[in-house]
Structure formats: structure tokens, C-alpha cells
């Protein structure tokens, strides 16, 4: 057999320099991307810094004449400001959690998947890998949820974020305003960030209103402070409107124990799609995010329940196999609260449940929702089929 021709020295060196320049270009591109991703955060920080100067220096110190009003406004303002900054900081810098090592495929399984083109064999390997994992959700076609990029079996409510290029536990969405994925590790912080930023804006609107009216009735001295007072009111009112709708939406999601992704595309369980599959009732849903101890609810300190890999579901109590899992004991008996829950038997064997056969029914509404989820450009997760 003829030996393969060795590349000449010049070919090797030009190949090396080519790959070096490609690496340099991709390095520059990555750095540019990194800078661009921080632009929305810098924008919020600039607005926040200016609002601090406008409110504290121009409104409170230079315009307010009543000492009592000045002191009360400054104390209350700083309280909202600190809580806003604290929750914002925690949302930005809390690293999203990734699936633990039990969900990763073994080296041998990875090799097998790479070698084997047949999808039936892939499913066999994945079924075997998922056998002892607390996984109850499936893809739309009933297969085990698997991430090609991270080479792992996806835990329930976990999705691959195309911006972070990682699988994120209980992924809600990738938020450009915090340059981070909002998921299991920082969802409480994100909610508090929305709540405190809304309170901050509403407080500014309420205390700036009388000076804003004076601006239009020529009741303010003719200094630059009056322009700060006017723009401060406009900016705070504008942000209040957008924040209140976003905060209201997330309050609804928490009350239903849904993530933004699940609101667009209902999770598929072993027996079918169930948009309320993770809902345990209002009080328990609240505790899933905020924890059991009420004294920590308003502080950006991590108190969410669970490990992010498995979640109590309304299915669990009816399924003897699942009731023995760590998630099982948390499950509430929720049948009376959920009349739409599929009345399908829930004690079929695991092997039957993992088949590709579509053994469930989907309502037209769910199908419509799924289409919506897949076509929504705001969602950065992968599409599962
Ligand atoms: Zn992934
Ligand atoms: Zn992300």
C-alpha cells in the first residue's frame, strides 16, 4: 500500500499561518460580540447614574425647599436605589446552572452516537442513559430530550441557550438587559429586579409630579435643574409602563409555575402535552421560586426550592415509579385543582413510555401555541422535534 503523501514544508507553514489568522479573526469577533452584549447593561447603568444625579442633586438638594420632604425623599429614594442595584447586580452576575454530571453521556455512549447514523440506535442509547434519571418530559415526537452541543440528556425544563452555548437549568429566557440567561439560579433575582426597578420608577414619578407640573406653569426657578426634573419624570413614567407589563406577566408565570419558554411551548410529558404540568397551586408555585422562609422573599438571596434538575409535577402522585424520586415527595395532590390533566393511565412501564409511538393527544390550542413558540425570534432555545 502506498504511503500517504506528506505535505510540503511550505504547505504546512501556509496552512499554519492560515489557521493562525482564522483564530485571530474569530478571537477579534468574539471580543466584539462580548462588547456588544454589554451595551444594553451599560445603557441601563448610564440611565441609572443620570437619574441618581438628577433626583438627588437637582431635585432634592437644589429644588426642594422643605427640609422634611428633602430628608424623607432622600431616605426612601436610597432604599429603592440600593434594592434595585442589588437585585440587578445579582441577576447579571449569578452564573446560570448547568446540568450535573449524571446527565452527561458516558464516553462510550458519545462515541457510539457519533459512529451510529441510525436514529433508532440513538434512542436506545439515550433511553438507557435516561433510565435512572428523574426525567418526565419528552420532545414533541416523544423521544428523550438530548442536547447535541453539550452531549447530555436534558433535565426537565432545561434548554440549550444559543447565546450562552450551554444547557441552562429551568431556562426562562436569555435577557440582553442583564447580559445573562435567566434560569433556575437567578429567576428570583430577576423578579426582584423587575419589582424594585418598577418601584424605583413609580417613586420618582410620585415625588417628581408636583415639580413637573410647576415646570409647565413656570413655577420653577430658571436653572438647568428644571430640565433634569422634566426629563426625569418622562423617563420614569415611560419605564414604569413597560416594567409594569413585564412584571405583571412574570407574576402570572410564577403563579402558574411556568417559564417564559413553557408559556410559548407547553412541556410534553410522557403522556402528552400539559401546559400546567408543573403547577402545584398558587401558594406552592410561589414557594418554588421564593422559598419557604418569607423573611427572605424580598431580598435577592437564593432561596428557590429544589436542585434545578428535577421538579415536582402534578403527574407524580399518580405515578408509582416517579413517586420514589427526590422530586416525588414535594409533589402536591393537585388533581382537584387541575381538571384538564390527562386522565391517561400513568403507570405504564418505562419502556412503553419511551417508545416513539405517539400515544397522546394534543389539543389544537397546544399545537397553535407550539407553532408560536417555534416562530418567536425572542426565544433563543433550540427547537425540539
Ligand atoms: Zn446544550
Ligand atoms: Zn443564555
Automatic annotation (TrEMBL):
Enzyme Commission no: 2.3.1.225
Low complexity bias locations: 8-20
Chief location: membrane
Catalysed reaction equations from the record: L-cysteinyl-[protein] + hexadecanoyl-CoA = S-hexadecanoyl-L-cysteinyl-[protein] + CoA
Membrane topology qualifier: Multi-pass membrane protein
Domain Palmitoyltransferase DHHC: start-end pairs: 144-264
Coiled-coil features, chain-numbered ranges: none
Top EC class, one word: transferase
Record localization: Membrane
Protein name in UniProt: Palmitoyltransferase
Organism: Pogona vitticeps
Amino acid at each position: 500500500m502506498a504511503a500517504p503523501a506528506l505535505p510540503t514544508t511550505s504547505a504546512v507553514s501556509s496552512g499554519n499561518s492560515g489557521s493562525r489568522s482564522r483564530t485571530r479573526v474569530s478571537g477579534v469577533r468574539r471580543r466584539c460580540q462580548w462588547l456588544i452584549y454589554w451595551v444594553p447593561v451599560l445603557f441601563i447603568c448610564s440611565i441609572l447614574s443620570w437619574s441618581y444625579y438628577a433626583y438627588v442633586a437637582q431635585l432634592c438638594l437644589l429644588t426642594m425647599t422643605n427640609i422634611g420632604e428633602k430628608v424623607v425623599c432622600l431616605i426612601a429614594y436610597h432604599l429603592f436605589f440600593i434594592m434595585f442595584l442589588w437585585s440587578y447586580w445579582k441577576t447579571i452576575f449569578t452564573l446560570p446552572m448547568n446540568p450535573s454530571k449524571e446527565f452527561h453521556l458516558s464516553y462510550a455512549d458519545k462515541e457510539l452516537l457519533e459512529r451510529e447514523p441510525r436514529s433508532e440506535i440513538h434512542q436506545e442509547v439515550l433511553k438507557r442513559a435516561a433510565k435512572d434519571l428523574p426525567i418526565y418530559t419528552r420532545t414533541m415526537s416523544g423521544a428523550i430530550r438530548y442536547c447535541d452541543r453539550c452531549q447530555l440528556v436534558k433535565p426537565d425544563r432545561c434548554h440549550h441557550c444559543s447565546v450562552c452555548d450551554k444547557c441552562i437549568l429551568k431556562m426562562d429566557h436569555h435577557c440582553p438587559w442583564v447580559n445573562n440567561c435567566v434560569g433556575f439560579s437567578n429567576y428570583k433575582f430577576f423578579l426582584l429586579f423587575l419589582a424594585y426597578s418598577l418601584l424605583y420608577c413609580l417613586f420618582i414619578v410620585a415625588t417628581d409630579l408636583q415639580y413637573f407640573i410647576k415646570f409647565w406653569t413656570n413655577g420653577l426657578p430658571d436653572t438647568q435643574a428644571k430640565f433634569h426634573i422634566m426629563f426625569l419624570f418622562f423617563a420614569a413614567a415611560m419605564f414604569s409602563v413597560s416594567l409594569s407589563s413585564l412584571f405583571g406577566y412574570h407574576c402570572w408565570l410564577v403563579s402558574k409555575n411556568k417559564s417564559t419558554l413553557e408559556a410559548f411551548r407547553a412541556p410534553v410529558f410522557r403522556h402528552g402535552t400539559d401546559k400546567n404540568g408543573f403547577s402545584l397551586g398558587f401558594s406552592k408555585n410561589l414557594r418554588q421560586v421564593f422559598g419557604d422562609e418569607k423573611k427572605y422573599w424580598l431580598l435577592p438571596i437564593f432561596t428557590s426550592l429544589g436542585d434545578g434538575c428535577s421538579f415536582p409535577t402534578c403527574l407524580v402522585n399518580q405515578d408509582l415509579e416517579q413517586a420514589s424520586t427526590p422530586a416525588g415527595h414535594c409533589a402536591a395532590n393537585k388533581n382537584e385543582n387541575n381538571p384538564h390533566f390527562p386522565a391517561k393511565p400513568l403507570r405504564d412501564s418505562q419502556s412503553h413510555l419511551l417508545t416513539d409511538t405517539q400515544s397522546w393527544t394534543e389539543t389544537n390550542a397546544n399545537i397553535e401555541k407550539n407553532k408560536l413558540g417555534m416562530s418567536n425570534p425572542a426565544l433563543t432555545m433550540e427547537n425540539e422535534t
